[in-house]
Structure formats: structure tokens, C-alpha cells
Amino acid sequence: MDFTFTEEQQAAVEAARAVFADVAPDGVPSPALTPGAVADEFDRPLWARLAGSDLLSLVLAEEHGGAGLDAIALCLVLREAGRVLARVPLLEHCAAAMAVQAHGSPELAAALLPAAGRGTLVLTAAAHGRSGHDPAELAVTARREGADWILDGTQTAVPWAQSADWIAVPAHTGEGDAVLALVPRTAEGLALAEQVSTSGERLAELALDGVRVDAAHLIDAPEAWERLRQLLATGTCALALGLGEGVLTMTSQYTGKREQFGFPVATFQAVAVQAADRYIDLRAMEVTLWQAAWRLDAATGGAGGPLPSSGDVAVAKIWASEGVRRVVQTAQHLHGGFGADTDYPLHRYHAWAKQLELQLGPAAAHEEALGDLLAAHPLG
Fold first, then answer.
1. Cα dihedral angle (290, 292, 298, 303), rounded to 10 degrees?
2. Within 10 Å of residue 301's Cβ, how many Cβ atoms?
3. What average pLDDT does range 265-294 have in this prediction?
4. Which of 206, 239, 253, 345 falls between 20 and 30 A from 137, CA-CA?
């Protein structure tokens, strides 16, 4: 078996590193010192550079102006974004675009995807349900009215909603079916209430009151929402991995220079052991991430496994949630008081890590989901 990345995937990593090379994690006010959101907008100049490097169209088919790459390539780019705390809706935008491409009508794909690939149209997804704990598809109802659909309900913590042009909203029909509606931000009956993430970024509570959606903008394929949910969870794991790697590098550099008793603290056994444990966490996060991303891509080609791909995604999210928390906690400990200095970027990484740990469910929620899968699919 060949576990190396393809030339196209490696080229995507090189392009991402070039784009993110000049991104400063402390380019906006500190979330620790800001009562509201750290900025009204995401990083539009960075978004333009991503579009100019064809990274926003990475996962789109050639017919839509893309490179036709897969979830693994997207996660490789997200990993680089996580290292620098890139303030762009790259995950939500690309995951929603992949859902439209795979399950939407040709007309919907043609209307949204070319502009999405150019970055002139921004997509996001409402994936947290009414409270952040209940299934997102149960938070909104969808009912037919003539040729249209009517949406009612509330979704919380929708990332970058105020800046997005279209929002992918999961809903249920009351008959046990989950559908995915593409709703313009300016739709009549849609209201956004201000929310702020742990990392200081703008979120929105999305209230839908009789929002009318054209049938062409609703995807009723039964697997569309589930695949989008899994893509978002796997992409979150990629962001957490990149963040964790950035933090461990920062910690290594600091402990290599910081001296006590005439020696760098990195040479002390207690420090080295803690850093080694966190390195093991990162490698576990990495291997489970690539397993989940591979299963998502393989599922589209008919490849199966003892469990559905959602099992691999759950394992990856368990490791990402617990691993990134341990990495930033150890980093804070090894930095001492300097780690809490708001002029030093580590506290920002800690805030982002907590956001990613809980985003789309903490480890406990995915452990419960994995247990249900194991009960339903006995192994051996």
C-alpha cells in the first residue's frame, strides 16, 4: 500500500504554505481583551489570495473551474490554515460546495459553484442545531407549499453567516427525511442574531420564519446532509491538527531558549517527557484524520469497511478534541506565565483550540455516537 500523498495533493500544500506564509495570528485584537467579536469581517485580503491561488476551487470539478481534488487535499490545506489561525470560512465554504457538487442539481451547481471557486460568492453551513447539542437537521422543519419549500426553525452558532452569500441549512420534513436547503442570506423571513465564538469570531443565530426556498435550491438526496456533516467534522480535525502542530513548534522554540539554572528548560526530563506525550497526541490525531478523510473519499467510490465512514469520523474527532486540548494545556504549562501574556500569541491558540474541541460536538458526544455504531454493526 502507498501512504504518500499524490503530486496534486502535495502541490496544494505548497500553494497553501505560500498563501499563509505572511498571515499573523495576532493580526486582530485579542479575544481576551475584546468584549465582542475581534472583527466585523473575515480576512478578505487572505480570501482573495486563496482565490488567486485556486485553493477555493480545489475540490470543484473542472467543469466548474476547479482542480477536481478530494477531501484529503482539502484537509491538507486546512491543516496549514490551522497553523496560523487563518480567519476565513475555508472549511464551511468548500464543504458546502462539495455537497452541492455531489448532490445538487446541475442547475444549482452551475449557479453557485463557478463563483464560489472564484471567491466572489461565499458559502457557509448551519451545522449546530438549535442548541449545539441536538442534531442540526431536527432544528428546522421543511414543508412543501406548491413548487417551493417553507423553512421554519432556529440554528445556532453559524460561522461567518453575516458575511456569507448563501447558507446551507439542514432540515427535516417530518417524515424522517433530512434535506439540505441553500438559502440566500438576504432571504425574506431570515434573521441573524449576533453571537461570538470562544475564539472571538462572529457567529450568528439563524432564525427562519416562513423562509421560502425554491425547489431547485433544496437537495433532497438522503445522504447529502450526512456527508456535509462528516466533511465539516473531518475538516475541523484538520484545523485542530494544524493548530496543535503550530503550538508544539512554538513551545519547542520557547523551551529551547528559556534557561533555568544555566540550562535550556527543554533539556529537563520533565519538560521533554511532556512534550513527547503531546507529540504522540499529534501523531494519533494525524493518522485518524487521514483515515477519516480517506473513508469519505473512498465512500464515493464504493469502498466500504466494517463500520460506516461516520465511525472513522467519530474516532478522528475524539482524538482531535482531546488531543488539541492536551497540547495547548501543556504548552501553557511549559511557557509558565509568559503563555498568558496577551502580547504573545499562545493564548489565541488556546482560545481557538477550545472552539475546535467543542465544534460539532466534544469527544464525549462522538464516543456516544461511536458506541451506537458498534452496537449496530458488531465486528467479527
1. 120
2. 6
3. 96
4. 239
User: Burial letters for 223-257: b for 16+ Cβ neighbours within 10 Å, e otherwise?
Assistant: ebbbbbbbbbbbbbbbbbbbbbbbbbebbeebbee
pTM greater than 0.85: yes
pLDDT at 302 over 50: no
Mean pLDDT of 85-101: 98
Confidence of residue 300 (pLDDT cuts 50, 70, 90): low
pLDDT band at 380 (very low <50, low <70, confident <90, very high): low
Answer whether residue 241 shows pLDDT above 80: yes
